[in-house]
Design goal:
The complex is a heterodimer. By secondary structure, chain A is mostly helical. Chain A is 71% helix and 0% strand. Chain B has a five-stranded parallel beta sheet, with helices on both faces. In chain B, strands 4-6 form a two-stranded antiparallel ribbon. The longest helix of chain B has 14 residues. The chains are: A mainly alpha, B alpha/beta.
Chain lengths: 313, 147
């Protein structure tokens, strides 16, 4: 590890940071659209389609709605992008550079919350009733899924021997125990909600409230939000891999890591394409009863296994 | 033309996002538009995507004669669309008000309303009642060439 400040800047901006994760994220968006199209027996868009979309949005005019709060409206996308890039950098440096610090798991959990927060703030600042509905739904969805997600993280911490260091967690047992497997299931469901894709695309529901919080965005701010969503499509599968599936690996094992990533991405896309959308009350009910119960069982089993020294629990 | 507009025009040809405005059409054209997005014709091959709000749109697809109630919403939708953008007057009614031309609640054609908002708007016409999907795709190509 180099210690010069410009090396850190390079790490942040180029390799595990912004440029690299943006490229992987755009590729993931293309895989998403292509697989969706193939499931529906269509041909689907060309490889560079996400790039074309972004370039076009950057070139378009930026319109400010009459009732909007301009400063907050324009800065919200930047907050979300900053959170996503930092999370990508953190996960990337754990997986590619094997560097981490004590407590980075907690930092990561907080950073993953920033994109949703940005969407809520941006939606509320645009002064449109539809985006207000979208923001309020996003808020309820966060209240619903954050509890089971945190419980799953606690399960992982207990299983890895009470460590908050991502490198130790990568080396830990991950999903190779009963509690770990249950926590993996819970996290997969929560990732679906965190990405706001079907069956939990309630805040953005295109057919009912027209992309919700993003309804008033145009041009560059919309491009930044789309970039953020592309980054999330890279970050969240990587988050699952880091916590549960033993990381991306080193050297030739990296190929297996890439396979894990693509597999997780395709699972997310398949769930997205074979399910209807839930209502917000159904989603909250689902998360607060079934998923939280599952997460509690996982955490309890992990604690029991730790107390009695049973490694498979 | 500055660099930003040039960038936008380059991008729109590769990813035109379409917002569908119904100004009193009989639903016939609207069904035909959905056909273009279906597996047989798959407009997403060319990056064409239906969006839910004019703020995200590059192409306004207007079907129907402009009735008295929909004239102001059409103006608002055009104003809410970030420029550069294109307008497609869709179907016989969109092009010329069709058989509703002398109707008592029809205010005139799409191009008249849009031209009053912006005299330099890019408008293309797709005649037919309703136009066939092949005609729609051909019109999309011509619209993008005009940009």
């Amino acid at each position: 590890m180099a210690t010069d400040w410009y090396m850190y800047l390079l790490y942040f901006l180029i390799f595990p940071g912004f440029i690299f994760s943006l490229l992987v994220g755009l590729l993931a968006v293309w895989i998403d659209r292509k697989v969706t199209a193939r499931i529906q027996w269509r041909v689907g868009p060309p490889l560079l389609q996400p790039v074309y979309d972004l370039v076009k949005l950057i070139g378009k005019e930026v319109l400010l709605p009459v009732g909007a709060q301009p400063l907050v409206f324009l800065f919200a996308p930047l907050v979300g992008l900053a959170g996503a890039v930092l999370a990508a950098f953190l996960l990337g440096s754990v997986n590619f550079l094997q560097s981490s610090f004590v407590g980075d798991l907690i930092v990561l959990v907080y950073l993953l919350f920033l994109p949703s927060l940005a969407i809520i703030i941006g939606g509320s600042a645009s002064g449109n009733p539809i985006s207000a509905i979208g923001s309020s739904r996003e808020m309820k969805l966060i209240l619903a899924y954050e509890l089971p997600l945190a419980l799953a993280v606690i399960t992982v911490i207990i299983n890895a021997g009470f460590t908050l260091n991502l490198n130790n967690i990568v080396a830990g047992p991950g999903a190779a125990s009963v509690s770990g497997f249950l926590a993996l299931l819970v996290t997969l469901i929560c990732v679906q909600a965190k990405l706001a894709v079907v069956p939990f695309d309630i805040p953005e529901a295109e057919t009912e409230i027209m992309e919700g919080p993003l309804v008033e965005y145009s041009g560059l701010p919309l491009a930044i939000f789309k970039t953020m969503e592309a980054l999330l499509l890279y970050i969240l599968p990587l988050y699952v891999i880091t916590l549960f599936l033993g990381g991306l690996g080193e050297g030739w094992w990296m190929l297996l890591g890439v396979l894990k990533y693509v597999l997780l991405l395709v699972i997310i896309i398949l769930i997205k394409n074979t399910n209807p959308r839930l209502r917000i009350d159904q989603a909250v009910n689902f998360f607060w009863t079934k998923v939280t119960a599952l997460a509690l069982i996982a955490a309890g089993l992990a604690a029991l296994g730790e107390i009695y020294g049973v490694s498979w629990l | 033309m500055n660099w930003k507009e040039r960038l936008a025009r380059w991008g729109i040809k590769r990813s035109p996002w379409v917002y569908h405005v119904n100004t009193g059409a009989c639903n016939n054209c609207d069904i035909e538009i959905l056909d273009v997005l279906c597996p047989r014709f798959d407009a997403e091959r060319f990056g064409i995507k239906l969006v839910g709000t004019p703020r995200h749109a590059d192409v306004l697809l207007v079907s129907g004669p402009v009735t008295r109630h929909t004239e102001q919403p059409l103006r608002d939708a055009y104003e809410a669309t970030p420029k550069p953008c294109a307008v497609v007057a869709f179907g016989a009614c969109g092009c010329s008000s069709g058989i509703f031309k002398d109707g008592l609640n029809v205010n005139g054609t799409v191009d008249r309303v849009i031209r009053e908002e912006d005299p330099e708007a890019i408008i293309t016409y797709v005649p037919g009642c309703p136009p066939r999907p092949e005609a729609i795709i051909s019109a999309a190509v011509k619209t993008l060439e005009a940009l």
